[in-house]
Amino acid sequence: MQAASRPGQLDDRLSFEERVYLLQVAREALDLGVSGETLPSLDLPSIPSRLIEPGATFVTLTKNQELRGCIGSLEATRSLAEDVRVHAVAAALEDYRFPPVQVDELSQISIEISRLTPPKLLKYQHPDELLTRIRPGLDGVVVKKGIRRATFLPQVWDKIPEVEVFLAMLCRKMGAASDCWRGKNVEISTYQVEKFYEKNLPHESD
Hints:
By secondary structure, the protein is α+β, with helices and mostly antiparallel strands. It is 24% helix and 24% strand. It is built from four helices and ten strands. Helix 1 packs parallel to helix 2. The longest helix is centred in the N-terminal third of the chain and has 19 residues.
């Protein structure tokens, strides 16, 4: 019997074997991409069937427990396995906040994968409702105004635990005023993630 999902997590959590596979393809893509090599095509017959289905992920790289790169997407536009590969390389080479990862850093890099639920638009009458509707530690949040948008994964709550500050920082990440979330024509969406790590992968019973 499948264990019940925890609050804020996907109902159809990946199996231990599926998590291992995704971490392996992320590591392979990271090593090849940083080395300037072309990624081989995925061997579709060897991939667990659920990982061929569309999925949206973020891949986060850390070095000495400090962020070294994070890239992802909010919408599922490719297979889950391919999405992880693409974002593993992008997190290493395309995150504008950091210089590209170098080959001699690879042994020090740890990989975290976040698999996202589709974002859901929050409906509210007054911005202050958001302070109680958004769940710290559980919800990823998207702020959107016009063509601009920005998101924080639920993991960011570890560093910014107050909802109002969280929203302010997210507005600033979008390039807007810190109180933009209180304005008109702003959309706030939330999503949840299933996250797993290269160095503390849960046991099969988890």
